[in-house]
Every structure is written in C-alpha cells, then in structure tokens.
Amino acid sequence: MERRHFLATGTGAGALALAASAGLSPAQAQTAAAWNKLAFESKTLAEAAKALGATTAPAESKELVLQAPEIAENGSVVRVGAQSNIAGTTQLALVVEKNPNALAALFDIPAGTDANVSTNVKMGQSSNVYALAKAGDKFFYSVKEVKVTLGGCGG
C-alpha cells in the first residue's frame, strides 16, 4: 500500500491499523495516547512530583545521575539525560525549573530494563534542571544548573 493511500483512508482508521499491526488492542492504543495533563502543566518540581503521585517531597539521591551541559549555547536544543541506579525505578522525568511548564519529559520504564533516558529540551533561560525518578511509591531527584547563552559567550 502506498503511503499516500494509507494516509488518505483516515487518521483514526490508520492509527488503529498501525496499533493493531504493533500488537496493541484498540483499548491499549487509546491508553498509550493518554497523558498526564496536570503534570505537564506544573510550574515546579514539587507540583510535578505531586501530579505524578508523590505523597511526600522527593528526596535527593546520588544514585540518580543527571547528564546536562553546564553551558548550553542554544536554548532551543539542550541535550539532557538521566540514569537511575535506584532499584525498581518505574518512571523518569526531566523538569526545567524556569520553563513556563516545568515538566519537559516523562518516561515510563518497563520492568527489567535499564532506567536510562535522554532527549532534547527547550530552555528559555538559565535554570536548574532536575531528573526525577519514581521507585515504588517514593520519588528521588538530582539537580544541575544549566546556563543558557547566546553563541556560547558566557552569561
């Protein structure tokens, strides 16, 4: 089937066909598309953690490693990653403190896989960047300041 013909058949039918070919039932496909709106509208680390299910404040952990540059020359593309060595990690999130919506990325970690993720985030200004990990019913964080500059001239 040609790509154009596939797309012309309708996005709903195409999405369900794609999900079915991937082995997902229609119910699973709809659930996978759901997202936590409240968490992504949060303004702080504490709000994001609460929206993700935290009942207490996250604790700082040396077993959660945040990879981020000290200076970002282009705030539109800042490579950030997190690796959790905390047993039972089920979620990793990246939070940019001074962004309009602090939660920049959320990853579900399947059982039996390494809790190691990375992505590009957009930063409007210099800010603290947090890695947030969920293990069981507890949340842990790691923090690093990232300075955003124009052309890498410092600031």
Notable characteristics:
globular, 6-stranded mixed sheet, single chain, 155 residues
Description:
The protein is of the alpha+beta class and 155 residues long. It has helices spanning 3-8, 11-21, 26-33, 37-40, 45-51; strands at 59-60, 64-67, 71-72, 78-84, 89-96, 103-108, 115-121, 127-135, 138-148. Strand 8 (127-135) and strand 9 (138-148) form a beta hairpin.
Short description:
With 155 residues, the chain is an alpha+beta fold. It is built from five helices and nine strands.
Q: Low-confidence parts, pLDDT < 50 over ≥5 residues?
A: 28-33
SS class: alpha+beta
Characterize the overall form.
globular
Alpha-carbon distance between the termini?
54 Å
Write the layout of secondary structure elements.
Layout: H1 3-8, H2 11-21, H3 26-33, H4 37-40, H5 45-51, E1 59-60, E2 64-67, E3 71-72, E4 78-84, E5 89-96, E6 103-108, E7 115-121, E8 127-135, E9 138-148
Parallel strand pairs: 1-9, 3-9
Antiparallel strand pairs: 2-4, 4-7, 5-6, 5-8, 8-9
